[in-house]
Specification:
disordered N terminus; four-stranded mixed β-sheet; 4 strands; 8 helices
């Protein structure tokens, strides 16, 4: 397995700083990038909700100090929720895709040997939120990096066939070996390169 590059967090911070801050400038105590990073660190630590991430941040403040800058201490759960309620989700998705590609570019060794698996999955427990079907996501997984290069949510009345072309538009797959199940083997998904 390839190790995560040390500059990966800084590269992510730079990408997150591209998101427009919707908040009134004089009222900002926290940078958006720091709030996003805090939530990411909490999720990577196995915490599944914002209230517990805010509590964890209070306890872990010293250990995350070099990665996020909280001059006034970590943000409250209300602040974090307000940010996520108002930020453009499509912009966050684009930022993470850009970051994943930046990581890929830094660590790839043999581009002609990179295996990317494209597959769809229904998110566990999402049927409780959205109804009977649940949320279905099609992802491009770079195996040697253990990293998702991109993902697209399928439309409610659609399937993977319509989402795969959208996903392929998001990522640069030149020189990669792509694996896909039979459903994805459509003429419109074939490309030269």
């Amino acid at each position: 397995m390839v190790k995560f590059p040390l500059g990966g967090i800084m590269l992510l911070r730079e990408s997150l700083e591209e998101i427009d801050d919707f908040r009134v400038k004089r009222c900002r105590k926290f940078e958006l990038a720091d709030i996003f990073l805090l939530v990411l660190f909490g999720l990577l630590s196995g915490i599944k909700d914002i209230e517990h991430i805010a509590e964890w941040a209070e306890e872990a403040e010293e250990s995350i100090k070099g990665l996020v800058k909280f001059e006034f201490g970590p943000p409250s759960a209300d602040t974090i929720l307000r940010v996520f309620r108002n930020v453009n989700a499509d912009k966050i998705e684009k930022v993470f895709i850009k970051w994943a590609h930046g990581i890929y570019e830094k660590v790839k060794i043999e581009p002609d040997r990179t295996i990317v698996a494209i597959d769809g999955k229904t998110m566990c427990g999402s049927n409780k939120v959205t109804g009977a079907k649940g949320i279905h996501i099609v992802s491009a997984w770079a195996d040697e990096l253990s990293l998702i290069l991109g993902q697209v949510k399928t439309d409610e009345k659609s399937n993977e066939i319509t989402a795969i072309p959208e996903l392929l538009e998001l990522i640069d797959i030149r020189g990669m070996i792509i694996t896909i199940d039979a459903m994805g083997c459509q003429k419109k998904n074939l490309r030269e390169n």
